[in-house]
Amino acid sequence: MSQPFSFFLVTDIHYFEPALGAEGPAYERRSRVDQKCIAETGAIIDAEFARIAADTETNTVIIPGDLVFDGEKASHLGVLKRLQYLKDHGKRVLLITARHDYNDYSRGFVGEEQVEVEHTNREELPGLYHAYGWDDAINVYRDGFSYVSQLTDKIRMLALNCDGDTKDFKGLYPEQLAWAKEQIKKAHDDGCYIFAITHYPLLPGSNIMKLIGDAKLTDWEQTADFLADAGLDLIFTGHMHMQSLTEHVSPGGNKITDICTGSLVGCPAYYRRVTFMEDGRIDIQSIPTGEFAWKDKGDRTAAEYFQWRFDRMITDLVDAMADDFEFFANKFGGVEKMKKFKAPITFVGKGLKKWNIGTLGRLLCFKVDPSVKDRLLKDVGVEFVRNIFIGDEPYVKGTPIYDVMDKLLNRLKPVLAIAGKKIKGGVSADYLKDFVLSLIGDENRRDHTAVLETSAMQYLTK
Ligand SMILES: [Fe+2]
Ligand SMILES: [Fe+2]
Question: I need a surface site. Which of 113, 148, 162, 424 has the fewest CB within 10 A?
């Protein structure tokens, strides 16, 4: 029987030093297409770190990367000051760095312009953050970026940097994986449970993320099989700014679970408390980023503010489809390339803004539950996208929205059949229908809270 042990998992804090310039037209232009609240990061982190500091039960904080906006040296100094604050309050902070933590070119925003500011080279990072993982590591990988920490006498953490080649390959090289396997075996030989962290998700957090290159490690399937077969069964990740719990079973029959956590500073703004209970089961809780002081939040709560910022990114696009084709086309390869689609894009954009679910039912001759008939298609579309990031997607079988989508997709089957033939390898209309339905409803609902039964039960109860 072991004592309960818990840690906070906070990720993608993306701190930006306001002295570098975080207001004015140039800032606003980029801010509108970002789910993160960058100018606000200082206020958000300070408020949340104060709450973490005041918590006397959980004294370990783990951060799997993206500490700053885009490699600014001044932002790193601001992060170090805030980590020192946690340390002064008795917290042990362990972190890895990721791709937003270094850059050849870093910028601030002044008036109409982006201005160059001092950047950070990747090699500097383990030195800057040596007090947060490296100094008391029990093993450091030879490139200096990955390490192993002893968290309790029975629990270790394998901190895996996944910068890869710092370009197209985001992942773990064979030698790094061989080192990881050795460390997993060593932990088990020493009677310890070991879990891992890495920045990029090991597993795609939604079916749609399987199609997006940047949504998980390159070679994720091989890497997941390798780590699962090496005896690793739990990994915490970030980067996607989404809440998800995903499982994968290797051909060898070994299961690994990836828990991806939202960014502290953008919708869905959450962090986690992870508790190893006395019986070795692992309790996963999610905590929404709380209130913070900011000059122009309007009357919004923190949660409303984060959601407003997220939704604006998408509604801007829908509005542009309808009313500002140039803006829209420039997001997708330029006016020249997109101009042949102008008429259908404008038509769909205007429809999304004007039509509700009832209109859709009438156009395609299916019955719609009265409780949802007045919902604007635009709002439903935005909600679908937002829900993929928030996780625990609510529209499962039996809900009126599921029913609408089911009927709509049945009507669209001839179109889906044609689309399916165009996809590499060819897929059926039913496959595409199931795929879309899987995006709106998650039967498992474990993205926010879960109790895991892992091999920790074996190691912690010995
Ligand atoms: Fe990030
Ligand atoms: Fe990232």
Answer: 424
Alpha-carbon distance of 292 to 304, in angstroms, equals: 12
What does the DSSP 8-state code read for residue 300?
-
Report the separation in Å between the CA atom of 101 and the middle of ligand 1, taken as the mean of its atom positions: 10
Residues of the domain holding 116: 5-295
Contact assessment for residue 198 and residue 141, using Cβ atoms and an 8 Å cutoff: no
Segment 227-273, tens digit of pLDDT: 999 999 999 999 999 999 999 999 999 999 999 999 999 999 999 99
Q: How far apart are CA 27 and CA 330, in angstroms?
A: 19
Give the ligand with the smallest distance to the CA of 36: 1
Q: What is the pTM of this model?
A: 0.96
Look at residues 264, 259, 195, 192 and name the one whose alpha carbon lies nearest to residue 227.
195
252 CA distance to ligand 2 middle (Å): 30
Q: Could you tell me if residue 152 is inside a domain?
A: yes
343 contact partners, CB below 8 Å, separation of at least 6:
none
Distance 253 CA to ligand 1 centre (A): 32
Model confidence pLDDT, tens digit, residues 318-338: 999 999 999 999 888 899 989
Q: Is there a single domain that holds both residue 178 and residue 29?
A: yes
Separation of 111 CA from ligand 2 center, angstroms? 27
Give the pair of three-digit tokens for residue 63.
Answer: 């951060």
For ligand 1, the distance from its centroid to the CA atom of residue 389, given in whole angstroms, is 13
| Residue 114 counted as domain residue | yes
**3-class DSSP state of 82:** helix
Distance (Å) from CA 15 to ligand 2 centroid: 13
Question: Which residues have CB less than 5 Å away from ligand 2 (the ion)?
Answer: 66, 239
Q: What are the Cα distances from residue 6, in Å, to 57, 149, 255, 301? A: 8, 15, 23, 28
Domain shared by 151 and 233, yes or no: yes
Find the 327 Cα to ligand 1 centroid distance in Å: 25
d(CA 289, CA 385): 20
* Same domain, residue pair 288 and 427: no
Ion ligand 1 — residues with CB < 5 Å:
12, 66
Q: Which ligand is nearest to the CA of 14?
A: 1
Residues 179 and 57 both lie in one domain:
yes
Q: Is the pLDDT of residue 370 over 90?
A: yes
**What's the pLDDT tens digit per position in 150-166?**
999 999 999 999 999 99
CA of 282 to the centre of ligand 1 (A): 25
> 89 with 225, same domain?
yes
* Count of domains forming the chain: 3
Least distant ligand from the CA of 265: 1
